[in-house]
Amino acid sequence: MAKTQKKRKKEIETKKKKKKKNEEEEMEMQAQGARVGQEVEALRRVGVSDSVGIDLVPCPPLVIKGDFHNQPFDNDTFDFEFSNVFDHALYPHKFVAEIERTLKPDGVSVLHVALSGRPDKYSANDLFSVKPLVEMFKASKLVHIRKVDGFGLDTEVVFRKKKISKPISS
What was the pLDDT predicted at 166? Predict the structure, then answer.
C-alpha cells in the first residue's frame, strides 16, 4: 500500500477513534470506481469532509487504491456510498456484498446504472431491470428509483441498509 493510502486510511481510523459517544458524528462517505475523485471533491465542497474514493488506480489525495470487490475498509464504516460503476463489476454479488459490509446500519447507498443498454465498452455485466439488483441487496431495502441522464447511465437506485435489531435482554 502506498504511503498516501496508508496515511488516508490512518486518518479515517484516527477520526473514528476521536469521536465521542454523545457527539454528533460527521458523515463518512465512499465512492467506488472514483477515477480522479470528482464525486469525492463535490461532496467535500458541500460539507461531507470525511469522503474518500477507491479505484484500482489511486489518485491522491481523494482516491486511494482499492478493489470494490474487496474494499480496504472495516465493517460498518460509511454512512453513504455512491457508485456509477456497477456495470464494471466482474462479480456483481461480491460488489454488492462489499457495499453492504462497509455501510453502517441505516446507511444509504446510491447506484447509477444503465437499464437501456451497455453504457460503455468496459461493461462487464448488463442490467435490463432493477429487479436483479434489488435481489442482490439482501441486507438493504429499496428506497427510491428514478430516471437520470448521466454518462450513459439512465437510472438511479437508492437503498438503505437495514438496522440490526438487538434482542431484548430479560
Answer: 63
